[in-house]
Amino acid sequence: MAYKCAITKQQDTSQPRARFIATAEAFDAAVKQCVENAAPEAVHVLRTGSRRLQATLEAMVREDTAVSLQQPAKGWLRQLKQVRRAAGTVRDLDVHRKLLEHWIASENSPLERQAGMLDAWLKARRKHLASDMQKKIGKRQQELEHRQAAFLAALDSVPLDGVRVPRSADEVALEQFVRAADAMPSLDAENLHDFRKATKKARYVAESGSAEQEYSSVAKALKRVQDAIGDWHDWVCLSEEAGAALGKGATELTASLEREVERHFAAALRTTQTMRGRLLGEWMAGHGKRPPASVTVGDRGLASGF
Predict the structure, then answer these.
(1) Which of 51, 115, 116, 201 is surrounded by the fewest CB atoms within 10 Å?
(2) What is the pLDDT averaged over residues 127-156?
(3) 85: which residues sit within 8 A by CB, 6+ positions away?
(4) Cβ atoms within 10 A of the Cβ of 270, count?
(5) Hey, which residues does 297 pair with through a beta bridge?
(6) Is the pLDDT at 288 greater than 90, yes or no?
(7) Is residue 37's pLDDT more than 50?
(8) What is the pLDDT of residue 66?
(9) How confident is the model at residue 110 (pLDDT cuts 50, 70, 90)?
(10) What DSSP string runs through 232-245?
């Protein structure tokens, strides 16, 4: 793309900007590969890359002082969201197939035949959805490139001081997390996934402030929450897919999956309780006050201690 040479001249003086460009370039490569063959790794990079870019852009739109970046950011955001949604169901099926494979291998289970039937169903569904995804992304590819180039050109024309967010990435991420905790003071199976989505956005904001090998304690804590809840949600989805694929003809597999759902739900609540206490404590230390609301975790009496 034409913007690369213009951006390179500033990369040495702005590490966050260089990381942002690197994320955009990895995302571009994943988009191209997804349109060509929809390989699982490319779908993964596309989805995570779009989330990282989205989190950074949204922070810029809210807080950046350079007015010239506002409209280009919004235009790129619209395209990123559409592409991410198109890839979402395909990526989920890749995760669920891998989860099923590892589970059956570790269990050494007599459920292997039923699991094989479920995997065949997941594979066929993935093939159908991947084809649909490729068409949707292919139609948006040119506009996506145009919007990305427009934003990066605008970014390159703004002095470095003009694009620096006045607060650190951790501070912005913590604020997002506290808002989510305030909105969902009690977590259960009904709202736990929504809390994960809010945590995921905060995590990508926190990670945007440092290189991968140097992620802050805030970013790491947010990732632990996201991963724990994500593990539970993957089991929920796999259990639902087993019901759709096999109906009542696989009661043993369904019962085993439901036990995994319960086990991972309890683990997700424990991890969320611990990490939320740590993150809210850090927010309190930075603001010299308590969080805006009392917070409890779970419908099983797991209190957060605030």
Answers:
(1) 116
(2) 94
(3) none
(4) 14
(5) 187, 302
(6) no
(7) yes
(8) 63
(9) confident
(10) HHHHHHHHHHHHHH
